[in-house]
Design goal:
Among the domains are: about 1-75; about 330-400, no CATH class. It has 17 helices and nine strands. The chain has helices at about 1-5, 10-40, 45-75, 125-130, 140-150, 160-165, 170-200, 275-285, 305-315, 330-345, 350-365, 370-375, 385-400, 405-410, 415-430, 440-450, 485-490; strands at about 90-105, 105-115, 125, 220-230, 235-245, 265-270, 295-300, 320-325, 440. The strands form two sheets. Strands 4, 5, 6, 7, 8 and 9 form a six-stranded mixed β-sheet that branches. The structure holds zinc ion.
Length: about 500
């Protein structure tokens, strides 16, 4: 800003002084109008006082933004900027095309020169690019605030928050559009990264470049799923959540303090098919140091669903690293109680007497006592033999993944609480919360991707789509003939 003010011409300096004076006048006027009225009334409470001052500041903010931007636009007017696509000089179709934006201080308007490419590459306002404005009606500041609110709650609840925080009216549809657009941008970045990683993996390189020695001692990877409803078919679709957490395996970390040494978890969320979801999980695990030399152990924690182990081994079984598969102990316990219910009847004395000790020893003695107890249960005495077979089979199939005493000695987590917590925070609270929440596939993915990010709006280029305003399909070449009403259609603000 210092540089800009140094560049101010004498004449510009005068106009700057003029509008500062104008604003001073405005404040003085407001003061004179407001004060007598306030004094006449009962004593105002602080909330009311702050509210009134807020209105004044909003008005001043609008004036300041408008003048500042107008001055900057006048400074930045270039003679004949080249087309960003073909490099040919653009043609100016208006020196003063108006632009309205709703931002931190409400609606502001200004004008700026508008150019079009003679070869049909669309229209361009260089000033918009300098201001890093996106195609949306909201300024980046307001957009960021709106998005931060919208990833935590339904779109139509956001306008009330914006209204109460900043006294700015917006509608729920704007909230949806901008959140989904920015989310799609974030998802596109994520897809690019997944593609790069997949290509490197295919070429036999260690993905993610050459990782340095810095990395975790071990990495916990876990996946889980939940269902979301789409508005197109009203059907429920599985959305998957992946979590990777760097672990410190110091010998000091025993079962009593399990979880100490866990760094902050990284989440990812995908609506793609189960096999397509794993490249995403893998790309995220890489960011957490999966391929670093220090990471010698990978723990894969799941609920016992077959696809988790199948694809997990494909992506996480790496040379020089030990892969340990762990069935979430809470799921194992659920199957234990479900077997007891099918064998003895739920809530019966036999049910409690059989399952309680096994439930207690599962963590310290592992699955062996359960397998013995299952073998000792006569199938012909079962209340529901088919059910008992299902749960017994679960323990037989998963027994190698239930060596809890060993995992405890190693300091590995044995319960997927962290994943289910993530599933709940990242996913259920927003995508499935409340009845009747319906999504488009793109919208759900966009909001899910934003929710999974630590800092959802950082790194988002709000001006990205502004480089060139697209021409609608089949529109006449604006460079030929008079710039008629057709122009406003590809000028998308
Ligand atoms: Zn061009």
């Amino acid at each position: 800003m210092i540089r800009a003010s140094q560049k101010l011409s004498k004449e510009r300096h005068t106009s700057w002084r003029e509008w500062v004076a104008g604003m001073q006048e405005k404040i003085a006027e407001w003061w004179q109008d407001t004060m007598p009225a306030c004094i006449r009334q009962e004593v105002q409470n602080l909330e009311a006082i702050e509210g009134m001052i807020d209105e004044l500041l909003q008005h001043c903010g609008q004036t300041l933004v408008t003048h500042w931007v107008t001055a900057q636009v006048a400074d930045a007017t270039e003679s004949h900027p080249p087309c960003p696509t073909c490099g040919k000089p653009l043609r100016c179709v208006s020196r003063h095309r108006s632009l309205h934006k709703t931002g931190r201080f409400g609606e502001c308007a200004w004008t700026r020169p508008y150019w079009v490419c003679g070869a049909g590459h669309g229209g361009w306002a260089p000033a918009d690019e300098a201001l890093e404005l996106g195609p949306e009606h909201l300024t980046p500041t307001l957009a960021r605030f709106v998005i931060e609110q919208a990833i935590d709650r339904p779109f139509d609840q956001v306008p009330t928050i914006v209204e109460s925080a900043w006294n700015i009216p917006i509608d729920g549809e704007t909230v949806r559009r901008i959140t989904e657009r920015v989310g799609q941008q974030a998802e596109l970045q994520e897809q690019n990264q997944i593609t790069t990683v997949a290509r490197e993996r295919e070429e036999g390189k260690t993905p993610g470049g050459n990782p340095g020695p810095e990395g975790p001692e071990a990495l916990l990877v876990s996946v889980d799923g939940a269902m979301v409803q789409f508005c197109a078919d009203h059907a429920w679709h599985e959305v998957k959540v992946g979590v990777s957490v760097p672990l410190a395996l110091s010998s000091a970390i025993g079962p009593a303090v399990r979880g100490v040494g866990m760094a902050s978890p990284d989440y990812c969320l995908g609506l793609e098919s189960r096999p397509d979801f794993w490249p995403r999980v893998y790309a995220h695990a890489l960011q957490q140091g999966l391929e670093t030399p220090s990471c010698r152990l990978v723990a894969l924690l799941g609920d016992g669903a077959d696809w988790i182990w199948r694809y997990g081994a494909e992506y996480l079984s790496l040379p020089g690293k030990t892969l340990i598969e762990i069935v979430d102990i809470y799921h194992a316990r659920e199957h234990l109680w479900a077997f007891a219910a099918a064998q003895f009847g739920p809530g019966t004395a036999a049910y409690t007497a059989w399952a309680t000790p096994l439930n207690a020893t599962l963590e310290t003695q592992g699955v062996a006592p359960i397998l013995e107890a299952l073998a000792a249960c006569p199938e012909d005495a079962a209340r529901d033999p088919a059910e008992t077979r299902t749960h017994a089979r679960y323990f037989h199939h998963q027994q190698a993944r239930m060596d809890y005493p060993r995992y405890a000695r190693m300091g590995l987590p044995i319960g997927s609480g962290i994943v289910e917590g993530a599933c709940k925070t990242v996913l259920k609270q927003r995508l499935t919360a409340g009845g009747g929440m319906q999504w488009t596939r793109k919208g759900a993915q966009a909001v899910g991707t934003l929710r999974a990010l630590h800092d959802p709006t950082s790194g988002i280029d709000f001006g990205e789509r502004n480089r060139m305003h697209e021409l609608p399909r089949g529109s006449p070449n604006p460079a030929k003939g008079a710039p008629g009403p057709g122009l406003s259609t590809f000028y998308r603000h």
